[in-house]
Amino acid sequence: MKNKLNRILSALSLLLLMAANCNLEPEPMPTPTPPAPTASITLSIPSTGPVSQTADGNAAATFEAGGGSVSLSFSATVAWTASSGATWCTVSPASGAAGSASVTLTAAKNETFNERTATVTLQAGTAKKTVTVKQPGQTPYITVEPEALTFDDKGGEYGVSVKSNASWRVSASAEWFTVTPAEGSGDGSVTVRAVENPLAANRNGQVVITTADGSVVKNITVIQTGKTGGDNEEIGYGGKIR
Known about the structure:
Elements: H1 2-23, E1 41-44, E2 51-53, E3 59-62, E4 68-76, E5 80-84, E6 89-92, E7 95-96, E8 99-107, E9 116-124, E10 127-135, E11 142-145, E12 148-151, E13 156-164, E14 167-172, E15 177-180, E16 183-185, E17 188-194, E18 203-211, E19 217-224
Parallel strand pairs: 3-10, 12-19
Antiparallel strand pairs: 1-4, 2-3, 4-8, 5-7, 5-9, 6-8, 9-10, 11-13, 13-17, 14-16, 14-18, 15-17, 18-19
């Protein structure tokens, strides 16, 4: 009788244990971690404009000497940064999140006569794109006012206004007039002084103003009337009797 009771109790315990196990919820499976996106940058460059795509998949931009700004659009699969290798060329913003974005490249005025180059770098993880930025130098110029001077036979002096963005030097083509100063830079003025003309004939010459590098030459015609009752020889540009 006792053995039979023990078998009954064992069977009940087993049934209770099985019932308890049936009520247990299975443990959730762990959520797999998605793989990190592959770092990449894709430039979006229009077919026309100051920015163009280069053969190696990067970009190039050209500004005028006066400077300016241009926008560059792109997309990045991860967070990105932007930087410039030159102080005269800036890029903004300096960073951003993954997705579509754009930066503004700004070039300051080039005050020199030399072309200059800068590199703007877009970095997204291990991916990188570069923009080669070029800017030409200023074009030298000289303007004068007036462009012709006429003296009477007694001589005298005239002032000439000079406007330029470069250094310049001055020379006279004849000995009967002088020009001061002999050189200058930027905007300024020169004074032309003519001595008395002892001849009856008119005489003429030129004031020559040249940029320091010789790339621009400006001539000012100088004429002096002859003296009434003077000698009849005519004086040419070089101050020689003809």
